[in-house]
Amino acid sequence: LAKTxxxxxxxxxxxxxxNITCSHNNIATNDYITWYQQFPSQGPxxxxxxxxxxxxxxxxxxxxxxxxxxxxxxxxxVSLSDTAVxxxxxxxxxxxTPLVFGKGTRLSVIA
Amino acid sequence: GAVVSxxxxxxxxxxxxxxxxxxxxxDFQATTxxxxxxxxxQSLMLMATSNEGSKATYEQGVEKDxxxxxxxxxxxxxxxxxxxxxxxxxxxxxxARPTDYNSPLHFGNGTRLTVT
Lengths: 111, 116
Prior knowledge:
By secondary structure, chain A is mostly beta strands. Helices cover 0% and strands 47% of the residues of chain A.
């Protein structure tokens, strides 16, 4: 299972764009990159998933370079409610393959 | 969107008793469910993989006789913490994988177990 490395923590002011980069050097051909958000005492919530290039949805964008050894989650104009832990996970979506969590990035948004 | 319901959200029990936690996929079928536990300020740690109709696969260091997992249908998996001890107090989270393999893993909202 591909291991991921993220910054332990980040701070941002409200209204700014936040980019969180994740390294996954040994990503496999069939692996997808998935980002989750977790608030205290809640389960992880799906944010975005991608395989290559760029993916955008209503809450975030995910940038994946051609070699797929890293990815960047971009949160536009963060608010206080975006304060949470963000996890980058790598794995295929088939059968018994679980998602193994790294330490995640604790994002603190300041007013 | 896909919803995973976990029940109860919070439970307090006495040492030596057993506690059952349910995990249901509400609007999709899941042949595979995963159970995690999370200690304060730490990441999620995988405990076991649960497949419908077969025995669960436990991660190294997780006692299968203590954490009984049953995945009786495509929408329900249960985790029973048997003979609970204070060190079993933790946040338990289930996740379900839709049979559509292009879909991401969906997580329940967790169960806070406190053993007194």
